Amino acid sequence: MVRLGRGQSPLGYAEAQAPRFVRELQEFVRMPSVSSDPAYKQDLGRCASWLASHLRRIGIDSVRLIETEGHPIVTARIDVSPSKPTLLIYGHYDVQPVKPESAWRFPPFSAQISGGHLFGRGAVDDKGQLFAHVKALESWFRTQGGPPCNVRIVFEGEEEIGSPHLRPFLEKYRQELKSDGAVVSDTQMRGPGQPALTIGLRGKLAFDVIVDGPAKDLHSGSFGGAVRNPAEVLSILVSGLHDREGRISVAGMYDDVRVYSLTERRRMAKSAPRAAELFQAAGVEEGWGEEGFTAYERISIRPSLSINGISGGHQGPGTKAIIPAHASAKLSFRLVPDQTPERVADLVTKHIARRCPPGVRCRIAIRESAPPVRIDRGSSIVKSASHALERTFGRTPVMLPSGGSIPVVEALDSLFSLPTALMGFALPTDALHGPNERFELKRFHQAIEASIRLLDHFSRTAGRLR
Ligand SMILES: [Zn+2]
């Protein structure tokens, strides 16, 4: 067993190399790997190649760049000993779009450092967190010749668009990816200095509602008042999706929602963020949502439905007196145990069909889906992550469900029954998915330290449990 003191240890190395690690992260963040926009396709390929050659440079020989129908997956394996457990590390190198660019303090791909933070799209979601594991591995390679356990790496470029090609990849490489535990760093901490392990993720169902009306845009003077307007129908449909109590008004929506006991809800409330904290992070004065539940419960153990965007008719400057031919909205559900995206898709399709008035046609196009997941908090990987976080931050991590969705976690669970630790380092103030996304350099180094400690603890304890 390797003593994790300072000096010629992985931790000592990481500390000494910290400034270079930051420069490399800046290089990584400067590549505009926006997966949802076809204009960036080449940048994603470039980013994947950069990542693959970086992994080779730190000492891994078996790095592969797997092409998919979408963006490539970077994968690697490190075999140290068959008697040691195997850890799978997952991360994603793709990022969210940056619009509106004018809202950014620094250009989104300039990776500027200011006030101890690295600003840039992907700084924390997920490049900074992914890279922390890479730098932890490097620290093991440079000081001990390799990590203390076997490692499998899966870095994908399609997480932000629902990981459409990840599942086939996992199925195809099932044997090579065989592991004893997985770690995913793509979630948040409870607050500054307070680590957290996420023990549940909401599922997702993203879809478009499309309303088609007249064969082409009509003159509102010639036809206004006599034909149905798709934009108005869409508004009525969309505004009817919630009732006055803040509940989703799709019939059957709550049938499969798991009911938490009062004891469970009290336990969660002890470490959960307060409403005021959430509203402050959101920049709103008051909250909204389902009656009878706290703000935190609304974003974690209850399903939700959000309109993500709405369009139809004339959007440019000035006026254009028309009845638009089409209108559409992008919506997404967040689902909780024991809901399934298939059933909810069926329910909402029927809901919209029943309410579509004559004179227009309404349809639903499903975009992406992922079922909700619950994490086994007793697994050896969760114990190792908990130990690593406690040693790094000097505080026991809180265990809370999160409102987000990460498709890989469900896939690892349903395909491989692989226990996963969701060991995240983002803070709600890091502006994930919004303008001015950032990652605190101090937390980047803490993430590296936690990963070094996780590898050590897992190599010693998971082996014993097998
Ligand atoms: Zn992410």
Number of discrete helical segments = 15
Q: In which range does the helix fraction lie? A: 25-40%
Q: Based on DSSP secondary structure assignment, what is the total number of beta strands?
A: 18
Bound molecules: zinc ion
Summarize the structure.
36% of the residues lie in helices and 21% in strands. It is α+β, with helices and mostly antiparallel strands and 466 residues long.
Question: What can you see in these coordinates?
Answer:
- With about 475 residues, this protein is α+β, with helices and mostly antiparallel strands.
- About 35% of the residues lie in helices and about 20% in strands.
- It has helices spanning about 10-15, 20-30, 40-55, 125-145, 165-170, 175, 220-225, 230-240, 260-270, 275-280, 295-300, 340-355, 380-395, 405-415, 440-465, and strands spanning about 60-65, 75-80, 85-90, 115, 115-120, 150-155, 180-185, 195-200, 205-210, 220, 305-310, 320-325, 325-335, 360-370, 375, 400, 420-425, 440.
- The strands form four sheets. Strands 1, 2, 3, 6, 7, 8, 15, 16 and 17 form a nine-stranded mixed β-sheet that branches.
- Strand 1 (about 60-65) and strand 2 form a beta hairpin.
- Helix 2 (about 20-30) crosses helix 4.
- The longest helix has 25 residues, at about 440-465.
- The chain starts with 9 loop residues before the first helix and ends with a helix.
- The model has no long low-confidence stretch (mean pLDDT about 95).
- The structure holds zinc ion.
